[in-house]
Write a structure and sequence with these properties.
alpha/beta; GIY-YIG endonuclease; Rossmann fold; six-stranded parallel β-sheet; globular; DNA-binding
DNA sequence: AGCACGCCGACT
DNA sequence: GTCGGCGTGCTC
């Protein structure tokens, strides 16, 4: 009798699983195993997602698997891959690819081209000194620890007074639970990783393994091999660490869960924090999120009971226990007036402080989120000089006296007259880095340093900072000017004073997360200021509720206010968003028709509660993209609609588009 | 990802 | 007339 079994095989390619016949003599129970299968002209390695008793209808003459190698991952890891592809609306194969499949094949299965020893292990990282455990954190340890011993899924949010407490928390956990195995620790940046890696390596040796995107391919493959073999069961790494191919997981820690670098901006656009939570759920293990200023999403999840807010008895935000910030730097709001703006970017308060700090030979940082000197505004009609292609205001750069578009990089020699009203009274307006530096230099007769990009070298997909060609590294000096990114270059407690030159430039961003981001930026800067130092926030509206809450470190009322606002406007976390972006240099009829169909048929506001926004053309680099998004309270319905939209868009030949689930900005 | 197939520009 | 560019499509 002839009785065949079949296997669905997933390849790390943009393909759905393909079906093969399992040849005689090959074991049947091979779910999760790595197999070599004929694919196209060559063969390829893939993983068996499912074993079938009969061939799917309509498929005959299926080819046989070539060979079966070891186990790649258990059932729960396969569920994670499936969830990734469903939630982020990507081919399952691409989810597999994101899960280090190619690295493993390269190191463990494919024949090595030459006999080579594995990559040289990294020099031992020093065990950095940990901050003393604060009384509060010590008090929370038993509650955190009780979550671990249960071996059940739970997600807990731990708020910290300082980022550096992350390493303390991790170290203390390992101290309390001596037998912890299969742990994933995610950190937002590579240099933070080294601190934790150092602490753990000293104690656990090769059981600890670092994983980040700046590893060389050989080192990455070696790390993956060690993880899969079980040699390393403690993985510390950036975003992709939450995808580490461990057979089982018993604890996941996501440090600084609010960090935007956890969200992938290309390929599989996952958010590592959300993946960690789902992975914990799938593998029945606890998840611990830490933050000095948690995301609204996580705070809201604590309020609904989805997560636990460690250290709080109730679920109401008003009962949430944020760290005591007494002894932290004073936050002062400095009033700017319209009148003073014409002469200076600074309030008199700020100027006085700058002179004092100068005299005391201490360090001071000025933060402003715009490069260049200023915008250019016409005094006659009030309009700004905008980029002809992108429509955003051009930024005037004093060096070269050119106006540059921050989106497309187009440069224009400074115009003489206003294109709107032909008036000749064009004047600098608004504040940029160069202008701030110029003014500090003249006030304090110093040479302030403009901090450029962080110390990173190569392009790094785990990093959300785009490298700019025209930027060079600069030394951190006593008086520095920089954008929010620059704060990464400065050590904890280095500054006497940090100045946010314009609260309005942070708060008036056309983004519903502007306040949340501002809070996080301010809290980050606070850590750079030594105890007894000062943070100054300059504002035209010093009585703003947000600034009042920030000034007194009143995170509770910040979250209460912000949640109320988001709820009133129906923004996340009270709704979900999926953003579509179509590479459409040619806005063809067919595209327009399909998008129109999606807007009317797929997103039925009244019947299904899904709201469609757009489409809008946006300029991006060279070329233009068409964007639209859908928003709904019900995530399941939203995903169904988005799936249907994806299917329709896929019918259009030659169309390239990306789907971003839970985008950071819209 | 490979590796086909396929349809336009400069060559012996 | 052909060689070859890589743009688009398929792989159970």
């Amino acid at each position: 009798m002839l009785f065949f079994m079949y296997a669905n095989v997933l390849f790390p390619l943009k393909l759905p699983p393909l079906t093969y016949r399992i040849p005689d003599g090959m074991p049947i129970d091979i779910e999760g195993f790595i197999v070599k299968a004929p694919l196209g002209r060559q063969g390829a390695y893939g993983v068996v997602t499912e074993v079938l008793g009969s061939a799917p209808e309509g498929l005959q003459g299926l080819r046989e698997l070539d060979e079966c190698r070891g186990l790649y991952a258990g059932r729960s890891y396969l569920s994670l891959i499936r969830w990734l592809s469903q939630y982020y609306l990507t081919a399952e194969g691409l989810a597999l690819k994101a899960c280090f499949f190619d690295d493993f094949i390269k190191s463990a299965v494919a024949e090595p081209k030459r006999k080579r020893r594995g990559p040289r292990p990294d020099a031992c990282l020093p065990c950095m000194e940990l901050p003393a455990a604060s009384g509060r954190l010590a008090g929370l340890m038993s509650e955190i620890s009780s979550k671990l011993s249960t071996n059940k899924y739970s997600t807990s949010l731990v708020t910290l007074a300082r980022t550096s407490e992350d390493a303390r928390l991790v170290s203390d956990l390992f101290e309390m639970q001596q037998d912890m195995r299969n742990v994933i620790i995610a950190v937002p940046e590579i240099d933070r990783m080294n601190r934790i890696l150092g602490c753990l390596s000293a104690k656990f040796g090769s059981r600890v393994c670092g994983l980040h995107s700046r590893l060389t391919p050989a080192k990455r493959a070696d790390a993956v091999k060690r993880i899969l073999s079980g040699e390393s069961d403690i993985v510390v790494g950036t975003r992709s660490a939450v995808l580490a191919p461990m057979q089982s997981v018993s604890l996941i820690i996501v440090n600084q869960e609010q960090s935007r670098s956890y969200k992938a901006q290309e390929g599989l656009r996952y958010n590592a924090r959300d993946v960690a939570v789902m992975r914990g759920y799938i593998s029945k293990s606890p998840v611990i999120l830490t933050s000095v200023a948690p995301s609204l999403e996580s705070v809201s999840n604590c309020a609904t009971g989805k997560y636990t807010f460690i250290g709080s008895s109730g679920r109401d935000v008003s009962s949430f226990d944020f760290p005591d910030r007494s002894g932290r730097p004073v936050i002062r709001i400095a009033r700017l007036t319209k009148k003073s703006r014409e002469q200076s970017c600074f309030s008199s308060d700020t100027i006085k402080k700058a002179k004092d700090v100068m005299k005391a030979k201490e360090a001071m940082l000025f933060l402003i989120n715009r490069k260049g000197y200023s915008l250019i505004r016409c005094d006659d009609c009030g309009s700004t000089l905008d980029c002809k292609r992108c429509g955003v205001p051009l930024v005037f750069h004093k060096a070269g006296s050119a106006a540059k578009c921050s989106l497309c990089g187009a440069e224009e020699k400074a115009a003489v007259s206003c294109p709107e009203c032909s008036g000749f009274n064009l004047a600098p307006s608004g504040i940029g880095l160069e202008r701030v530096k110029e003014e500090i230099d003249s006030i304090c007769s110093t040479r302030a340093v403009v901090l450029q990009k962080p110390a990173g070298r190569k392009k790094n997909p785990d990093d959300d900072i785009k490298p700019d060609e025209d930027e060079q590294e600069s030394e951190v000096a006593a008086f520095c000017v920089g954008t929010a990114h620059a704060v990464r270059r400065i050590d904890e407690g280095f500054l006497n004073t940090a100045v946010f030159v314009s609260a309005e430039s942070m708060l008036s961003m056309p983004d519903f997360r502007a306040r949340e981001r501002a809070l996080q930026e301010i809290m980050q800067s606070v850590e750079l200021v030594k105890p007894g130092g000062t943070v100054i926030i300059q504002s035209y509206r010093p009585d703003d509720r947000f600034l009042k809450a920030v000034r007194s470190y009143d995170l509770r009322s910040f979250y209460a206010d912000e949640l109320a606002e988001r709820m009133a406007l129906g923004y996340p976390p009270y709704s979900n968003i999926i953003l579509f972006s179509i590479d459409a240099a040619s806005g063809s009829r067919e595209i327009e028709r399909t998008v129109d169909e999606i807007a009317t048929e797929v997103c039925d506001e009244y019947k299904r509660g899904i709201t469609f926004y757009g489409p809008v053309q946006v300029a991006s680099g060279r070329g233009s993209r068409m964007q639209f998004f859908m928003k709904a309270r019900d995530s399941v319905r939203l995903h169904k609609a988005a799936e249907s939209a994806v299917r329709r868009l896929e019918l259009i030949k030659n169309l390239r588009f990306t789907v971003d689930v839970d985008p950071l900005k819209i």
